[in-house]
TrEMBL record:
SUPFAM superfamilies: DNA breaking-rejoining enzymes. It comes from the Bacteria. The keyword DNA-binding applies. This is Site-specific integrase. Belongs to the 'phage' integrase family.
Length: 399
C-alpha cells in the first residue's frame, strides 16, 4: 500500500509492505512541494507496482529516476509517418495552453498539407520542404519567424526522440531576415508601473465616494499580481488562474515562509517543465504582505488571489482578467499600449542579468528549460547599455 506523506514543504511516497510476516515501511522523496504533482507521481508508481515493473524494497529503489525513465519511454515514440510525428509532438505539448497547442498544430499541419508529405517517413523531409513555407512570397518578416519557431520546435522534438538524426535549421536560420527587436517595447519601467498603480488608486478613491461602494469588491489582488510579474518574472497563468492549464494560479503551497516571513515563491513544473524558487524582492514582499493581511491565511490548496465579493466571490482571479485590468489602468495612466504582462517577465529576467546574475542563475529563476532562451536577455542588456553609452557620447560631443 502506498500513500503520500508531507515533511516540511516536500512530499514523499510511503509504502507499507508485509513480507514474510514482517511489516516494513519505505519512505522516498518525490522531490516536489506541490500536492497535485505528488498525486500524479504516486498514481504512476502505483500502476508500475501493480504491473510488477518496480519493487519498493529493492536497494536501488528511486521513484524519481523511475518516473524520469518512464517519461523518456513515453516520449520516445516511434513515428512511421510525418503525420504521426505531428500527433505525437502535440501530445508532448499537452502541458501548454490550448491556444499554444493550436498554433503549433495549425503551422505544422499547413506545412504538411502544402508539401503533400503526410504519409512520408520523417527522415524523407528535406530542407526545401521548410523553405517552401518560410520563404514563400508575400508574407511578412514576422510570419517567416513564426513559421521558423514552430517548425524548429517540432524538429528539435524529433531529434530528441531519435525520430530524425540530422538538423538543417542552422542553415535556414542564416537565411532568415532580421526582425525588429520587439522585446524591449513590451517591458514596463518602474516609473510606468507606479503610474499604473497611481491610476488604480485614483479610481479606487473615486469609487469609494459612491453610495453603492462595496469594499468587498475591491481588486486588492491587482498590485501584488503586477509585482509578481515585474519582480518575480512569473508567466501570466503562473500567478493568474486558467481552467485550461493544470499548473495555473498561485496557491498557498507556492508561498514559502521562514520564521513566519515570506521568503520564496515556489513554482512547480509548468510550461518550461522546470521547478523554480524565486527569492522575494522587497517591493514584492511589501505588496504581498499587505494583500495577505486583507486576504487572511491561505491554506495550501487554496488560490492566493480570489474575489472577495460579488457573483464570483471565492473564485480565483484569471490571468485573462488580470491582463484586461492591466491594459485598462495602463491606458488611464498614459502608459504605452505596447507594454504587456509578458513584457514584465522580460523586464524581470533582464534586470536579474543587469544586477550581475549569471545566465544560468537567471535561467533557473525564470524556469527556462533551455539556457539559450535566457541568453537573448544577455544580448538585450548589452544592446541597452550600448544605446545608453551612445547617448552619453553624443551628449558629450554636443556639449
Amino acid at each position: 500500500m502506498a500513500y503520500l506523506k508531507k515533511r516540511r514543504n516536500t512530499w514523499y511516497v510511503r509504502y507499507h509492505i508485509v513480507e514474510y510476516g514482517k511489516e516494513l515501511t519505505i519512505t522516498r522523496t518525490l522531490k516536489t512541494k506541490r500536492k497535485d504533482v505528488a498525486e500524479k507521481r504516486l498514481e504512476k508508481l502505483e500502476k508500475l507496482e501493480k504491473n510488477g515493473r518496480i519493487h519498493p524494497l529493492s536497494d536501488n529503489f528511486n521513484p524519481i529516476e523511475i518516473l524520469n525513465r518512464l517519461e523518456e519511454e513515453e516520449q520516445n515514440t516511434k513515428c512511421n509517418t510525418v503525420q504521426e510525428s505531428l500527433e505525437a509532438f502535440l501530445k508532448s505539448k499537452k502541458h501548454l495552453s490550448s491556444k499554444t497547442v493550436e498554433a503549433y498544430e495549425w503551422a505544422i499541419q499547413h506545412f504538411i498539407d502544402h508539401n503533400g508529405i503526410a504519409f512520408h517517413h520523417p527522415i524523407e523531409m528535406r530542407i526545401d520542404h521548410f523553405e517552401n513555407i518560410i520563404f514563400k512570397d508575400d508574407i511578412s518578416i514576422q510570419t517567416r519567424h513564426y513559421y521558423f519557431r514552430h517548425f524548429r520546435a517540432w524538429w528539435n522534438w524529433m531529434l530528441d526522440n531519435n525520430i530524425v538524426d540530422f538538423d538543417f535549421f542552422d542553415a535556414i536560420k542564416k537565411k532568415m531576415p532580421k526582425k525588429k527587436e520587439s522585446t524591449r517595447p513590451k517591458m514596463i519601467t518602474l516609473e510606468e508601473l507606479y503610474q499604473v498603480f497611481k491610476a488604480y488608486g485614483e479610481e479606487l478613491v473615486r469609487k469609494s465616494k459612491r453610495p453603492d461602494f462595496d469594499a468587498k469588491k475591491v481588486q486588492y489582488w491587482f498590485r501584488p499580481i503586477m509585482c509578481l510579474y515585474t519582480f518575480a518574472g512569473l508567466r501570466k497563468h503562473e500567478a493568474g488562474y486558467s481552467s485550461d492549464l493544470p499548473y495555473s494560479g498561485l496557491k498557498g503551497e507556492n508561498l514559502i515562509f521562514k520564521n513566519k516571513e515570506l521568503e520564496y515563491i515556489y513554482i512547480p513544473p509548468g510550461k518550461g517543465r522546470k521547478e523554480k524558487e524565486i527569492p522575494i524582492h522587497p517591493i514584492l514582499k511589501k505588496e504581498l504582505d499587505r494583500y495577505l493581511k486583507v486576504r487572511g491565511e491561505v491554506d495550501q490548496d487554496e488560490y492566493v488571489f480570489i474575489y472577495f465579493g460579488g457573483r464570483f466571490k471565492g473564485r480565483p482571479v484569471s490571468g485573462q482578467v488580470v491582463y484586461k485590468e492591466f491594459k485598462r489602468y495602463a491606458e488611464l495612466a498614459d502608459v504605452p499600449s505596447s507594454r504587456t504582462l509578458h513584457g514584465m517577465r522580460h523586464r524581470a529576467v533582464t534586470s536579474w542579468i543587469e544586477l550581475g546574475l549569471s545566465t544560468a542563475d537567471a535561467a533557473f529563476l525564470a524556469g527556462h528549460s533551455n539556457q539559450r532562451v535566457t541568453e537573448k536577455y544577455t544580448h538585450l542588456t548589452a544592446k541597452h547599455l550600448k544605446d545608453k553609452m551612445n547617448r552619453l557620447t553624443n551628449k558629450k560631443d554636443s556639449d
